[in-house]
What we know:
It is a single chain. By secondary structure, this protein is α/β, with parallel strands linked by helices. The protein has a single domain (3-119), classed as Response regulator (Rossmann fold), CATH 3.40.50. It has helices at 11-21, 35-45, 61-71, 86-95, 107-119; strands at residues 3-7, 27-32, 49-53, 77-81, 99-102. It has a five-stranded parallel β-sheet with strand order 2-1-3-4-5, sandwiched between helices. α3 runs parallel beside α4 (86-95). The two termini are 15 Å apart. The model has no long low-confidence stretch (mean pLDDT 91).
Amino acid sequence: MPNLLIVDDAKFMRMTLKNMLNNSIYNIVGEAENGEEAIEQYRSLQPDLVTMDITMPVMDGLSAAKAILGEFPDAKIIMCSAMGQQQMVIEAIEAGAKDFIVKPFDGGRVIDSINRVCKM
């Protein structure tokens, strides 16, 4: 069962993702609400996949993704963005993120993306 780390500063968005994945084959091992927490959680949990929000306080998702990928080149990160953040999504993909999902989340799209990235 693949382990997931969910990173988003909005508790509501973390809950939304957890609820979408509740009856799936994924195990949510941790949550973080900013980039610094995401890096710490990644180091301690070594999840199979991370969903990473782009816009967060303390440290944004793009910086956190770059830091995680710098330390763990095989990390699988899916960026989560609101409309209008295309440039940051492109930067994240160039930095090594595997995919992106757009908010508001579409349950089918989220599961498809996670399934696809986990098989990479």
